[in-house]
Amino acid sequence: MTFRTLDDLPATQRVLCRLDLNSPVEDETVQDNRRFDRHAETVRELSEAGHRVALLAHQGRPGRDTFVGLEQHAELLSEHAGVPVEYVPDTYGEEALDAVRGLEAGDVILLENARMVDAELPEESPAEKADTEFVQTLAAEFDAYVNDAYSAAHRSHASLVGFPRALPAYAGRVMETEYEANTAIAGREFDGDVTMVVGGTKATDVIEVMEALGDRVDNFLLGGVAGELFLRAAGHPVGRDVDAELFDEQWAANGDTVASVLDEYGDQIRLASDLAFETDDGERAEVAVADIDEKTTDYLDVGSETVADYEPVIHDSEAVFVKGALGVFEDERFADGTVGVLEAVAETDCFSVVGGGDTSRAIEMYGMDESEFSHVSIAGGAYIRALTGQELVGVSELERDVTE
Known about the structure:
The structure is a single chain. By secondary structure, the chain is α/β, with parallel strands linked by helices. It folds into two domains: 6-176 and 392-403, Phosphoglycerate kinase, N-terminal domain (Rossmann fold, 3-Layer(aba) Sandwich), CATH 3.40.50.1260; 183-373, Rossmann fold. Helices cover 38% and strands 17% of the residues. A hairpin with a 5-residue loop joins strand 12 and strand 13 (284-288). Helix 1 packs across helix 2 (71-81), helix 9 (203-213) runs parallel beside helix 11 (248-264) and helix 12 (304-315) packs parallel to helix 13. It starts with 13 loop residues before the first strand and ends with a helix.
C-alpha cells in the first residue's frame, strides 16, 4: 500500500474527514444503508483517539430530488458510530468555521452537503481544486485530511482531491479496506481458478472488465442485461427491446465490440442456458435459451439450469469477484439467479469480493451473512475502475502526498 492510513496519523489532530454517505431518499427521508455502518468505524476511531473531527460528505446532485441537506445523515451516522455527530448547516462560512474552532477532543461535527458549494462539482485538476476558496478556507483550520470516500474516489471534486494538496493526507478504514480488496484481482496471485460473475445493465462495464482482466480471469459467468446482449452476439434471438428499452441502443453502440470480445474470450465465457420471465398471471416461468425462437417478453433473471451450471465453477474457484446482478433481484420472483450465485460464493472456501452498490444490497435483502464473503464493497463506479485498472484520482492524490 502506498498511502498513509489512520495508523500513521499523529495524536490529537484537528482532522477534516471526507465520507461518502450518499443514500437513497424516499419521501424526503434518507434511507439507512451499509455506508453509515462502514464509515462509522473511521468516525468512531477518530473520536475515541481524541481527535477533533469535522466531516465532509455529499448527497445527490443539484436539481435532483435527492439533493438535500445532511441533518438526517448526522443522526444516522451518530446511531451507527455510537458517538454524537452534530450537524452544522454550513460548509465553510462563518457558522462552519465557528463550529470547527469550538471542537474539543473527541468531538465530531458533520458540515453541510459539500455539493452545495459551487467549487465542489466541476471536474477540474487537483491543483485547481486546491486553489479554491472552499479548500483554502477550510484547510487553514485543520492539521490533517482523511479520505474515507473510496466509492467517490473516481471524482475530481474539491473535497476529494483539493485537500490532499493542502494538508497531510491519510486513508480512512473504508478507503483502506476497499482499496485492498478491489485491487486484489490485479495485484494478488491465486493458486487456483479466478472467476468473475458479471451482470448488470451496462454492456460497456462488462466489455471493459473482460478486456482488462482477460489474462487474469479463468471464468466469466454472465447474466443480466449484459449477459443477454452476449447471447444475442452468440446468435440467439434475445437481447432486444420488448417493453424495457435496455437493449437495442446498447447493441447499436456496442454490438460489434460484444461480438469481438465473445470471440476473443469465448473459452472463458459461460452464458445463460435458460432465462426467466413473468407469465400472464404474474408467476415466474423459465425457458431454455435453445428453445427461444423470438423474443416476445422481457427476461428478468437467469434460470435455474444456469445457476446449476454456474455453481460448480464457483465451488472450484480460488477467488470469485461479483460485479452486477444476474436479474431483477429487487423482485423476489426474479432473485433466484443473483441469490443463487451469491449463496454459492458464500459456501465456497475462496477469496470473494462482491462489488457494486446494487449487487451488495441483495446480501442484506435476502438474509445472507456478510461475513461469509471476504469483502462486500459499497463502491459502484470506483469498483469498476479499480477492476479495469483505471485511475482513481482520489487514491492517486493520497499516494502523491506520500511520494512527494
